[in-house]
């Protein structure tokens, strides 16, 4: 990561590089690469946590009753579609209300 960022830095024109102090640029290079790695690790951990939080209860629900699990899973797309429709309706009413004022 640091090597790729440094290679990108070397592609800048000399006049652009001369505007900044070398230590400042190296410090920023270090911090930026650390932030990018931290961001990706955070995203991966959050995605894995969400997947585990979905799968574990689903396994418990399936072991209790397969029929209730199917009914519950069929409701998810229905609720999702209803939320989208409701959101569109609210945005439409907001637009009308703003035109009045």
Distance between the termini: 52 Å
Mind telling me the C-alpha Rg? 25 Å
Oligomer: single chain
Indicate the proportion of strand residues: under 5%
Residues in helix, %? over 70%
Treating each run of at least 4 consecutive H or I residues as one helix, how many helices? Answer: 4
The count of DSSP E runs of length 2 or more, i.e. the number of strands, is 0
What form results from the Cα inertia axes?
Answer: flat
What number is the mean pLDDT? 84
Instruction: Report the major sheet.
Output: none
Order of helices and strands: HHHH
- Given the helix and strand composition, which structural class is it? mainly alpha
Q: Would you give an account of this structure?
A:
The model has no long low-confidence stretch (mean pLDDT 84). This protein has helices at residues 2-10, 14-18, 22-64, 66-100. The N and C termini lie far apart (52 Å). It has 101 residues and is mostly helical. The protein contains four helices and no strands. The longest helix has 43 residues, at 22-64. The protein is flat. α3 crosses α4. Helix content is 91%, strand content 0%.
